[in-house]
Amino acid sequence: MKIAAALTLFICASLNAQVPSSNAEPSAQTVQKSELAIVLLHGKWGMPPAPLDQQFKDAGFKVVSPEMGWSRETAYSITYEVSLQRVNAQVESLRQQGFKRIVLGGQSFGANGALAYASLFSNVDALLLFAPGHNPDIDRNRNPAKVEEAKALIAAGQPDKLITFTDFNDGSRTKDFSVPPQAYLSYFDPDGLASMPKTATSQKKAIPVLVFMGRSDWVTRQGAKYFFGRLPKHPANQYVVSDSEHRQVPQSSFPLAMQWIESYVLK
């Protein structure tokens, strides 16, 4: 398979972590498409189905797309941890249904969520990260004053007093929210689950990870070392800087994602 030849930019990061390679050995046991399920997580302020839900279904895969805590309806009213526990319930249900391999993927905040999930649970077989986003450790959502306010409210025994804040999304979009301090911290603490360098370092095991970065995204400017270089070594890991902008990354990357799944996850 020659994925690298079709990429706008394919970074073989010679970091202290892994060096992605198109010569990665496939899994020991081949499975059929009908034995592989894909869980897709939508982006910030989105709703199910997540991007590529229908495309993967049309390709013959079982696909589920849960509503996440950052959806426009849930609006951060539950913590990041509770949101990921709901994903875990979906994954465990798929295992009980007999699926032998499960791929967890997501777009933007959903990609952040997939990485965070794998730092807490060890029951998925691969990660697909499309234009990973929401980075309160480095971007516009970094707000130390609000983080300290939330911590102070919890310490003062006022967990029900709301934190009001402005949330930033791609394309210079903003929304105002009011949420309990514990929920705010779970999504916006730069040392919490939303920190991709931290969750990359905290992965439960080495599994294949395919990353497509948005061409002009802030996080892309940080380079492969930002979180990709912190992942556990795996010969199928690949890091791609897409030629597309943030919200177009999943659609433009779908053919290459399919090739990667067929070469490294099914086989």
Structure description:
By secondary structure, the protein is of the alpha/beta class. It has helices spanning 53-58, 80-96, 109-120, 144-155, 181-188, 196-201, 249-265; strands at 9-10, 36-41, 62-64, 101-107, 126-130, 163-169, 173-179, 209-213, 238-241. The longest helix has 17 residues, at 80-96. The two termini are 13 Å apart.
How does the SSE layout of this entry go?
Blueprint: E1 9-10, E2 36-41, H1 53-58, E3 62-64, H2 80-96, E4 101-107, H3 109-120, E5 126-130, H4 144-155, E6 163-169, E7 173-179, H5 181-188, H6 196-201, E8 209-213, E9 238-241, H7 249-265
Parallel strand pairs: 2-3, 2-4, 4-5, 5-8, 8-9
Antiparallel strand pairs: 1-9, 6-7
Helix pairs in contact: 4-5
Brief characterization of the structure:
With 267 residues, the protein is of the alpha/beta class. It is 29% helix and 17% strand. The longest helix is centred in the N-terminal third of the chain and has 17 residues, at 80-96.
Task: List descriptors.
single chain; 267 residues; alpha/beta; 7 helices; globular
- Taking all Cα atoms into account, the compactness measure Rg is 18 Å
Query: H/E series, N to C?
Result: EEHEHEHEHEEHHEEH
How would you describe the shape?
A: globular
**Which structural class do the helices and strands define?**
alpha/beta
For the terminal residues, how far apart are their CA atoms?
A: 13 Å
Q: How much helicity do the residues have?
A: 25-40%
